[in-house]
Design brief:
With 514 residues, this protein is mainly α. Helix content is 77%, strand content 0%. Helix 12 crosses helix 15.
Length: 514
């Protein structure tokens, strides 16, 4: 009963902290990190443990799939240069900076362990940043760059992490022997993710019960990760390819009565996993902190503070260097961006450089360090300090910074939604055009009114609310849905506009069901 009581108390506390975060308009992981730190010093707090091999699968797989499912391939291609430099160069620079600093501060730390520490704290968690960015009027391109970075930097950082951990475990590490299998694993991971998605959708296409469908979604996610790891592939890349493939094909075959509860359950699960990660790291730190003598505690805190400063400064340095270099190349006529929005600005660089909060991936990677790993206690403490420090320092100041920058955007998503909504209602009218019934006449009048609002309003108007059950209406909604699917495939609209309209038509479809 004691464990059950603690679980209830922790979940209620997390809900209260999340509500407080929404009220003060900061990312909820900021307060979860503070709660985890507080838990580490609570007398008689539980000391739950987690198998290191389970950490990445439990925490990273579902969180990564949730992020990858909403990723727009169109926006990734349009912003490939800034995203790729953040994913590869910024992660590499951060890892190298932290490794050099850690080895300098702790000379006995093996280089492979120092590199592992650098890889653990390298990937920012853009979920915390985008929670703020979506509350303010920020240029859409910056938002998409940060979301693309968050999806892919986990793969690059954890790849370095796996190599470093492997190098620590073996006596003689030969890069020449390891590189071919690594390249094969990277290519195989992408192919495997695509094939897993196609196979899984074929196996589950006849499941029509919502609870069963949701359970199968989670089972499929963990199965893909575990299978990829067992055959030597990258679980992260496999999950990303798996999620993106499903996201491109599942909306056309998934009814609203399955999709709506599924989205709610996934959002809840991601929140619970964040709660669990921050609480578990707090419980892990409690015994570490108590068994260290005061002198060692002070040394470990100094190392953690230095690593936190290095992580923040390395990102600022790279983002500013990238922006200044690109602007210089453009000024000399050596680089020609496709549009003016692609030119990095100083204000935009300041915002991007400050969106470096660390989160659940850093915690999961620290958890996953095997028992007996060199300086594991120091690395766990440092990882949590970086997460806590970045969420507090940057999470609490990001919104005021963005408001001070006064960045403006033309809101391209609203324009895409307006065009797509008008096209969808035209498709709905065409679907019922030949029906002579009185019900069809009433529906045509309603949809023509909605079409006029969609064409005349800057934001495309709004959808009708509660509608009577009507097979004819469901047929028209199906045609409208097919219209936005076509616009998405042709990349006339992005995934943000598509999902906004998908939610709108899901409500209409559910209200039109008997």
């Amino acid at each position: 009963m004691t464990t059950f009581e603690w679980i209830i108390a922790l979940l209620l506390g997390a809900v209260a902290l999340s509500a407080l975060a929404r009220r003060v308009k900061v990312p909820y992981p900021t307060f979860l990190a503070i709660g985890g730190a507080f838990l580490a010093f609570v007398p008689n707090s539980p000391s739950w443990t987690l198998e290191p091999d389970l950490a990445l699968a439990l925490f990273v797989a579902p969180v990564l799939l949730d992020a990858a499912y909403d990723t727009s391939l169109r926006d990734l291609r349009r912003n490939w240069l800034p995203v790729s430099t953040l994913v590869f160069v910024a992660v590499g620079v951060t890892t190298a900076t932290v490794a050099l600093l850690a080895h300098w501060l702790v000379p006995d730390m093996p280089w492979s362990a120092a590199i592992a520490l650098g890889a653990i704290v390298a990937p920012p968690d853009a979920a915390a940043a985008t929670a703020i960015l979506r509350q303010v009027n920020l240029p859409y391109r910056i938002l998409k760059i940060l979301e693309g970075e968050s999806l892919l930097n986990d793969a690059s950082a954890l790849l370095i992490y796996r190599i470093a951990v492997h190098a620590t475990a073996v006596q003689h590490f030969e890069w020449r022997e390891f590189a071919p299998s690594l390249l094969l694993a990277l290519a195989g991971s992408i192919a495997a993710g695509y094939l897993f998605a196609k196979l899984w959708m074929r196996l589950t296409r006849h499941v029509s019960d919502a609870p069963s469908a949701i359970i199968l979604q989670f089972a499929g996610t963990f199965t893909v990760w575990i299978a990829a790891e067992h055959v030597g592939l990258s679980g992260i890349l496999t999950i990303v390819a798996y999620a993106i493939t499903i996201a491109r094909t599942a909306p056309a075959r998934t009814p609203a009565r399955l999709r709506v509860p599924s989205y709610a359950v996934w959002e809840t699960m991601v929140f619970i996993l964040n709660v669990l990660a921050f609480m578990l790291i707090g419980m892990q730190l409690h015994p570490i902190w108590t068994r260290l003598d005061p002198t060692v505690r002070l040394e470990y805190c100094a190392v953690a503070a230095c690593v936190l400063a290095a992580v923040i400064l390395a990102r600022i340095a790279w983002v500013m260097f990238y922006g200044a270099t690109l602007r210089g190349l453009i000024a000399k006529g050596l680089f020609h961006p496709r549009n003016s929005a692609a030119v990095p600005t100083l204000k935009g660089g300041v915002v991007v450089s400050w969106c470096g909060m660390r989160g659940i991936v850093t915690l999961a990677a620290a958890f996953a360090l095997p028992e007996g790993f060199p300086y594991r206690d120091l690395m766990l403490l440092t990882a949590f300090a970086v997460v806590l420090g970045s969420l507090v320092l940057q999470g609490l100041t990001l919104r005021p910074l963005i408001l001070a920058m006064r960045l403006k955007d033309e809101d391209p998503v609203a324009a895409e939604v307006a065009r797509a909504r008008a096209a969808a209602y035209r498709a709905a009218l065409e679907e019922i055009d030949g029906d002579p019934s009185e019900e069809a006449d009433i529906l045509r009048i309603e949809y023509r009114a909605l079409l006029l609002r969609a064409e005349g309003s800057p934001d495309g108007g709004v959808s009708s609310g509660e509608l009577p059950a009507d097979p004819l209406r469901r047929r028209a909604i199906g045609a409208a849905r097919q219209s936005i699917l076509t616009l998405r495939r042709s990349e006339e609209i992005g995934d943000d506009a598509f999902h906004q309209l998908e939610e709108e038509f899901d409500r209409a479809e559910l209200s039109a069901q008997a």
